[in-house]
Amino acid sequence: MNASLKRLAFAAALCVPLAAWSGTFTDTYSGSGGTSSCLTSYKLRGNEPSSGKHPVFLYMVGTTETYDNGQAMAAVNEMAAKGFVAAAVEYNSGSFGTCSQIGQKAACIFKPSSSASAVSKLCARATADCSKGVVVAGFSQGSVIATTAKNYDSRVRAAYGMGTHTTYSVYSLSSCMAAGKYTLPTTNLRIVNGETDTFPGGTPATVRASSQNVTGKNCGSSAYNCQNSNGSGWIMVRGSQVGDLSADHCYQRASGDCLGLQDVLDNGWRNGSDPWQLKANLTWLAGFATP
What we know:
- InterPro entries: AB_hydrolase_fold (IPR029058).
- The chain is 26% helix and 20% strand.
- The protein is an alpha/beta fold.
């Protein structure tokens, strides 16, 4: 099979328009290796339209995850197909940490004053125009980075987070993740959490409370969907909505095991159009950028 036919088959398998694959790219940027200095080389893997000028999308994975895993690249390729210069961002994901420690990572990724930062590398691409907007997404620790990205770069317009909380087991991130503690307006944030996510407590009640804390949006003690008129707010996924019947921290995966199967995605999340699924959330996110 020649290269063109391989590319067509790969695009068809992932349900991504062929045009989205015309501009795949890789690059590096200078990030935080564990200190406030942005001196460690990390990778970017992206996809972009083949011509024109476009807004930019960045995606950050969760703790210990491969930066360009299936979940990350599904989001990147969908956003490229929507007309974004889109990339998955590697960072020091091997450990979690405090607001300060995770903030160091976010600061190096979203440092517009440095030409070596991830956002600057993407904004400098020939098809990019960051005056049209920068939007972000992430999972778990990556969603913390996404939610706080505007703290460091004012061009960030909106964020979509999965597994997004103020508490992660023994770590309390209320000082940077509670509503009002980050720069991004809560009306520009949408988070989607599984109803049995163990990090905030493992029950619908504890996940609901965490979602309320992050967004500042409260729709009552039985709500599973709590959104503002523009679609911001939070959504809680039921176990009955996912293939393995377990809406836990990794509800996007065919198996809820967060330690493996990063490339085996829940079919509904990847290909469906319900409010908790990927395409609906990326359509909402894309609406904050200028075409």
